[in-house]
Amino acid sequence: MKPGALPDLAVGLAVTALGVLGAWLTWVIPVTPVYAVVGPKLVPAVIAAALFVLGLMLTAAALRGGWSADLPEVAEAGPRNLPALGWLLGGMLLNLVLIEPLGFSIAAALQFVCTARAFGSRAPLRDAVIALTVSLTAFFLFVEALGVNIGAGLLEGAILRALGQEVS
Amino acid sequence: MDSLSGLALGFGNALSLANLAWALLGCFLGTAVGVLPGIGPALTIALLLPITFSVSATGAFILFCGVFYGAMYGGSTTSILLNTPGESGSIITALEGAKMARNGRAGPALATSAIGSFVAGTVGTLGIAFLGPVIVEWALVLGPAEYFSLMVLCFVTVSAVLGSSPLRGLTSLFFGLMLGLVGVDLQTGQPRLTFGVPELLDGVNVVLVAVALFAVGEALYMAWHHHAGKQEVLAVGRLMLSKEDLKRSFWPWIRGAGLGFPFGVLPAGGTEMPTMLSYFAERKLVKPEYAQEFGTTGAIEGVAGPEAANNAAAAGILVPMLTLGLPTSATAAIMLSAFQSYGINPGPLLFTQQAELVWTLIASLFIANVMLVVLNLPLVGLWVRILKIPVPQLYAGILVFATIGTYGISNSVIDLVLLYALGIVAMFMRRFDFPVAPVVIGMILGPMAEQALRQALTISQGDWTVFVTRPGSAIILGLAILALAGPRLYAAIARKA
């Protein structure tokens, strides 16, 4: 086995596992009392079987030497930048935790700052100013122009109150 | 309704102030997202889907189609000035376009691609207007069995024909089909693949999946291999085409348009293949005195042809979408889900039941083409400015919009968890060269295919041979098998060229 093929092997096995998961999920679909030529289980079973077979084929391809190490995009890509990935994932986690207690704008602004940091920005204060502008613009664009209902958080509520609007 | 009276009706509606405004907004947004690396029309239309709750169907689709066409125009600007294709149809444009730009000929390259896009877009839209009703007439006799076979053909072409590996394409497709299964089975009322999570009973939202695949996954992948370094935006210079440039561009435009449109129409979808074929054709057909410009200083033929092919294919993709309800690209799949949220079923009946909508849409495409030439040539300076948005703030901004677009669906953190989890999957898909478009298409078309399968089998009283005994269905299934074997043939030809 070629050294670069190990990640590909993991992918092949993951797809195979997805097939197995699909088969189990199909198994637990309740049996329907309604008569149907094609019951609720048939299509899921076919899809799970296909994923299982495709996973085995990918695994075989990996064992024969893999495919991804030869891709120009992978070969030419720079070294892995795990700190950058960490900042990005950290920003996502922060957003997940804070979006309910603090509201969209603040959570998204913090995510913005982390994401910009991930891509090499070194001016967190400037980013924070841009971030709040962007997230507030996005909020009012979605709420006012697209009519999406997103509950106002701390910041949005304060702004709406300052504009003299009722905040629910 | 025949095409001419349809167009007359359509232009009457499309020229209203509101519809012109929607078209302009769509073209503007579309060009912007086409120019910006990292976002494309599929993501943009997904984020705009909420307007389907408050805007009329006509307005919304004019907007979406403006975005769709606009992204094709904008993508070429990025390819030429940055040597980074803004979207997949522009990869080929970057080959010669960026070389022209480096040799001080960015202006003519931009001009030939904008005018070529206009020529091809107009040819392609004429194609929609005149071919559409013909296909509809033919499609009206199709039963559920034929429909199911057509969807199988569509699955095969989008996953196994496009992209570099049928194996990986099919894996993506089946992953999408699996996502499409999540939720309550409409016919039997049984929950499927929900893990007992009540939020999943309604299924996985299309917007969420599109945003995860096209925005979050892309951002994660870019961060994974991020290294500092500034990209240089090349100077535009004079935009005028000289007489010689015009002469050299003319036939490539026409050939590109002629090549691109059928590729879009046949569910051989995608814009990569026609642009590549057009490039090879122009390279072969170029006058000997310009032949040495290919690959060195950049040949204008190599920009004009593929750009035209790209736009004509984009127009062609709308034909199966509007006449059969078959999406052959991720963007078309998301537009299809927009139709569904209006309770409109795209398919042959669309042209009769929603004639006004369809013809207004087609007329708007002509108008959008005119707007886009104006937006892209005189205003090219504006797009160059957009290109200069620094990468950190660009991706940060994309993620903010991704988050709000997803959170807005149901204000649920579970959706966001799903968004980021799928984003991580998409990152690995990108790393291991699994195409993402088949995921979206499988997810949207899968449930429709299951429904067609059930209808066909109900009509045939459970007889599975119906798919091969009905001649139409048998022919389409035969084509699907051919499409599965075809790429190998194509690869052999491409290797020789």
UniProtKB/TrEMBL annotation, chain A:
<keyword id="KW-0812">Transmembrane</keyword>
<keyword id="KW-1133">Transmembrane helix</keyword>
<dbReference type="Pfam" id="PF07331">
    <property type="entry name" value="TctB"/>
</dbReference>
<feature type="transmembrane region" description="Helical">
    <location>
        <begin position="42"/>
        <end position="63"/>
    </location>
</feature>
<feature type="transmembrane region" description="Helical">
    <location>
        <begin position="9"/>
        <end position="30"/>
    </location>
</feature>
<feature type="transmembrane region" description="Helical">
    <location>
        <begin position="130"/>
        <end position="155"/>
    </location>
</feature>
<protein>
    <submittedName>
        <fullName>Tripartite tricarboxylate transporter TctB family protein</fullName>
    </submittedName>
</protein>
<feature type="domain" description="DUF1468">
    <location>
        <begin position="10"/>
        <end position="149"/>
    </location>
</feature>
<dbReference type="InterPro" id="IPR009936">
    <property type="entry name" value="DUF1468"/>
</dbReference>
<keyword id="KW-0472">Membrane</keyword>
<feature type="transmembrane region" description="Helical">
    <location>
        <begin position="84"/>
        <end position="110"/>
    </location>
</feature>
TrEMBL record, chain B:
<keyword id="KW-0812">Transmembrane</keyword>
<feature type="transmembrane region" description="Helical">
    <location>
        <begin position="169"/>
        <end position="186"/>
    </location>
</feature>
<keyword id="KW-0472">Membrane</keyword>
<feature type="transmembrane region" description="Helical">
    <location>
        <begin position="138"/>
        <end position="162"/>
    </location>
</feature>
<feature type="transmembrane region" description="Helical">
    <location>
        <begin position="47"/>
        <end position="71"/>
    </location>
</feature>
<feature type="transmembrane region" description="Helical">
    <location>
        <begin position="434"/>
        <end position="453"/>
    </location>
</feature>
<protein>
    <submittedName>
        <fullName>Tripartite tricarboxylate transporter permease</fullName>
    </submittedName>
</protein>
<feature type="transmembrane region" description="Helical">
    <location>
        <begin position="395"/>
        <end position="422"/>
    </location>
</feature>
<feature type="domain" description="DUF112">
    <location>
        <begin position="20"/>
        <end position="441"/>
    </location>
</feature>
<feature type="transmembrane region" description="Helical">
    <location>
        <begin position="250"/>
        <end position="270"/>
    </location>
</feature>
<feature type="transmembrane region" description="Helical">
    <location>
        <begin position="206"/>
        <end position="224"/>
    </location>
</feature>
<dbReference type="InterPro" id="IPR002823">
    <property type="entry name" value="DUF112_TM"/>
</dbReference>
<feature type="transmembrane region" description="Helical">
    <location>
        <begin position="473"/>
        <end position="491"/>
    </location>
</feature>
<feature type="transmembrane region" description="Helical">
    <location>
        <begin position="312"/>
        <end position="336"/>
    </location>
</feature>
<feature type="transmembrane region" description="Helical">
    <location>
        <begin position="357"/>
        <end position="383"/>
    </location>
</feature>
<keyword id="KW-1133">Transmembrane helix</keyword>
<feature type="transmembrane region" description="Helical">
    <location>
        <begin position="109"/>
        <end position="132"/>
    </location>
</feature>
<dbReference type="Pfam" id="PF01970">
    <property type="entry name" value="TctA"/>
</dbReference>
